[in-house]
UniProtKB/TrEMBL annotation:
<keyword id="KW-0175">Coiled coil</keyword>
<dbReference type="GO" id="GO:0005856">
    <property type="term" value="C:cytoskeleton"/>
</dbReference>
<dbReference type="GO" id="GO:1905719">
    <property type="term" value="P:protein localization to perinuclear region of cytoplasm"/>
</dbReference>
<keyword id="KW-0963">Cytoplasm</keyword>
<comment type="similarity">
    <text>Belongs to the TRAFAC class TrmE-Era-EngA-EngB-Septin-like GTPase superfamily. Septin GTPase family.</text>
</comment>
<feature type="coiled-coil region">
    <location>
        <begin position="352"/>
        <end position="394"/>
    </location>
</feature>
<keyword id="KW-0206">Cytoskeleton</keyword>
<keyword id="KW-0342">GTP-binding</keyword>
<dbReference type="GO" id="GO:0005525">
    <property type="term" value="F:GTP binding"/>
</dbReference>
<keyword id="KW-0547">Nucleotide-binding</keyword>
<dbReference type="Pfam" id="PF00735">
    <property type="entry name" value="Septin"/>
</dbReference>
<comment type="subunit">
    <text>Septins polymerize into heterooligomeric protein complexes that form filaments.</text>
</comment>
<comment type="function">
    <text>Filament-forming cytoskeletal GTPase.</text>
</comment>
<dbReference type="GO" id="GO:0001669">
    <property type="term" value="C:acrosomal vesicle"/>
</dbReference>
<protein>
    <recommendedName>
        <fullName>Septin</fullName>
    </recommendedName>
</protein>
<dbReference type="InterPro" id="IPR027417">
    <property type="entry name" value="P-loop_NTPase"/>
</dbReference>
<dbReference type="InterPro" id="IPR030379">
    <property type="entry name" value="G_SEPTIN_dom"/>
</dbReference>
Length: 412
């Protein structure tokens, strides 16, 4: 039912004004309701040295005290701490995942400090890709852990970026939306800050580092891109300014108000992250960074959108070609295995034959020796028998001659 109000603009014409929306004008409302029902999620990665103010800034941004133990400076390598929080503002639920580096910048050799960060970013893309490739996908209730924004905390040195900053940003800029921040900006004067900001930006440009580009809004002449890197200050301390209590940091010479745009860029950053650009950050993550990962990963697996002569190839054709290729490769490998097996059998046969021949020769040799031994023994036996015969002959002869002698003696 629609409500109409009769308005009398003209005495003769009756004008009807609608009090409620109808028709496809309601489409955005449907989207809003659906999104609220589904809830929102946002994943932030904070990269920066230990004690640079990562936890304090996150607490200040979300106005919560996410209790944490103090991190140590004595880790032997860089790690990542992941925590998910269920927040609610009015009736809007937000599943916030905060990933923070641990031990970043604390090692003497910082060459591979960026590696765990890169691995983490890729692992989240890989998990999403694996879900996408499943036959039964459940992307609707899948907890998407891909990082939507990386807040890169730069130490307020007032000079330039450290080589670690450049190395890390260079290695992650194709994987995540980087928003560079000058941490603890309250330690720099306004003039130093301006100079530091322009130094950083020119260093990023000269090193070819891509940072997050804000969508150009023609109506908004207050361009946030010019403020980069945002100079931020974090604090959960409530300080009295006039009659109001504000978040700030109390110094002997006055109060730095975190939410005062003349004091730092905190409000700009908060607006950008939470009010104006959260959806764009998520879109960029999906359409730019994830797409880049996905295409290089699929190409590595051998998939391509076009064939050898730049003709489009369907997924089925590609699958068939891959299957054929795989089948061919299996056959080739089988043939190779057979050949090596035959070769080895032949080699073994030859060695067996050699060994057999050797044994046979040995046997013949031994047989010959044995026969010679037998012959020798035969000869000796024959000689012995002859000697025995001779002996008996001599014995008989001597007995006969002895008998003769005795007979002769008796006769005499
Ligand atoms: P994390 O190790 O990077 O998480 O650093 P923390 O957030 O634990 O902060 C370390 C110390 O720096 C704490 O004593 C904070 O009070 C202080 N701190 C945090 N943010 C700021 C800031 O913006 N300015 C100043 N001066 N100190 C800060």
């Amino acid at each position: 039912t629609f409500l109409f109000v009769l308005s009398k603009h003209n005495e003769d014409i009756r004008c009807l004004t609608t009090l409620s929306h109808f028709g496809f004008e309601c489409l955005p409302t449907q989207l809003v309701n659906k999104s609220i029902q589904k809830g929102f999620s946002f994943n932030i990665l904070c990269v920066g040295e230990t004690g640079i103010g990562k936890s304090t800034l996150i607490n200040t941004l979300f106005n919560t005290n996410m209790k944490e133990n103090k991190t140590s400076h004595f880790y032997s390598k860089v790690g990542l701490k992941v925590k998910t929080y269920e927040l609610q503002e009015r009736n809007i639920p937000l599943k916030l995942t905060v990933v923070k580096t641990v031990g970043y910048g604390d090692q003497i050799n910082k060459e591979s400090s960026y590696q765990p960060v890169v691995e983490y970013l890729d692992a989240q893309f890989e998990a999403y890709l694996q879900e996408e490739l499943k036959i039964k996908r459940s992307l609707v209730d899948y907890h998407d852990s891909r990082i939507h924004v990386c807040l890169y905390f730069i130490a307020p040195t007032g000079h330039s970026l450290k080589s670690l900053d450049l190395l890390t940003m260079k290695n992650i800029d194709r994987r995540v939306n980087i928003i560079p921040l000058i941490a603890k900006a309250d330690s720099l004067s306004k003039m130093d800050l301006q100079k530091f900001k322009s130094n950083i930006m020119s260093e990023l440009v000269s090193n070819g580092i891509q940072i997050y580009q804000f969508p150009i809004d023609e109506e908004d002449d207050d361009n946030s891109q010019c403020l980069l890197p945002f100079a931020v200050v974090g604090s959960m301390e409530e300080v009295k300014v006039g009659k109001r209590m504000v978040k700030g940091r109390h110094y002997p010479w006055g109060v730095l108000q975190v939410e005062n745009e003349n004091h730092c860029d905190f409000v700009k950053l908060r607006d950008l992250l939470l009010c104006t650009n959260m959806e764009d950050l998520k879109d960029q993550t999906h359409t730019q960074h994830y797409e880049c990962y996905r295409s290089s990963r699929l190409q590595k697996l051998g998939f391509n959108d076009t064939g050898p002569n730049n003709q489009p190839v369907s997924f089925q054709e590609m699958y068939e070609a891959k299957r054929q290729e795989f089948h061919g490769q299996c056959l080739r490998e089988e043939e190779e295995l057979k050949q090596t097996f035959m070769l080895r059998v032949k080699e073994k046969e030859l060695t067996f034959k050699d060994a057999e021949k050797e044994l046979q020769d040995k046997f013949e040799h031994l047989k010959r020796i044995q026969q010679e031994e037998i012959l020798k023994l035969e000869e000796e036996r024959r000689k012995l028998e002859e000697q025995i015969i001779d002996f008996y002959k001599t014995k008989t002869a001597s007995e006969t001659s002895q008998a003769q002698v005795c007979a002769n003696v008796k006769k005499d």
